[in-house]
From TrEMBL:
This is Lipoprotein.
Amino acid sequence: MKRYLFLAILGLSACETPAEISAREQIDAACLAGDLQACAAVQQRVAAENQALATTASGL
């Protein structure tokens, strides 16, 4: 079961395009630099990723 969850996580991250990865990294860096709007965007992204992961894991 854990192996399938790990593969699902890898599958979700592998779906990101280079542009999406770059945008994510830029927003993360802005949040670390103290930009509160960027931090809110990071929180929303993490919540969405967690929801997608939970949905994927529940299907296994």
